[in-house]
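As agreed, record minuted below.
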Amino acid sequence: MAKVGDEIVNPRTGQRMVFLQTGQESGGDLVRIDTYNPPTSPTSAPEPDHVHPYQESGAEVLSGSLRFHINGEERSVRAGESITIPANTPHHFWNDGEEEAHFVGWFCPALKIDRFFETFFGLAQDDKLNEKGLPSLLQLAVMVPRFGDEIRLSSPPWAAQRALFGMLAPVGRALGYREEYPYPHHGGPQVPQASGEERRPATSRKMGVVVACVLALLFALFLLRRRGRSNGR
């Protein structure tokens, strides 16, 4: 569990975070993180659009520049400026300058957002993110129920995400995936994850995973079509 002064690094993006205030140390009121973002490469995958359903969030830029895409509109925030994003507002951001952007990010209330960042950066440290910077489908399936109050992808609809990941979560857990992935350099015990020989289940087990994935995807598509029809009435 992160403490004030702990640093985490995402080697895939070069983003670095230092915890200034954690949920445990603020009594659940606030998380504040000193954050450093290198310039965003034109060829890199953008940060996924997401929401923090129950948290107001924001950033105070100390140096450099960030560009925020918030609910369909864009805004640059430069040194000396700050931004506040209401809860449940779709957004993502990137470094739109030529130098490293240094800012203090915050989330209120804290919930478990600091543990989410530890998990996400821990997965990045162990090269368990795909080319889009996301965990695998089965890793997401066990993480989403754990951190759904803290962060959600803006699309597909939350009902479809819950249905899909709810069906896949038992499969993920059976294969060794866990909802939290401790950051490797904080000295805590590592939660076992599917790797090496553990990621080579018997053929019947693989077939079970495939069948479960297909059924879950079909069910999710059914929900999306049903939602589209109801919205079109």
User: Anything to note?
Assistant: The first helix runs from residue 113 to 125. DSSP finds four helices and eleven strands in the chain.
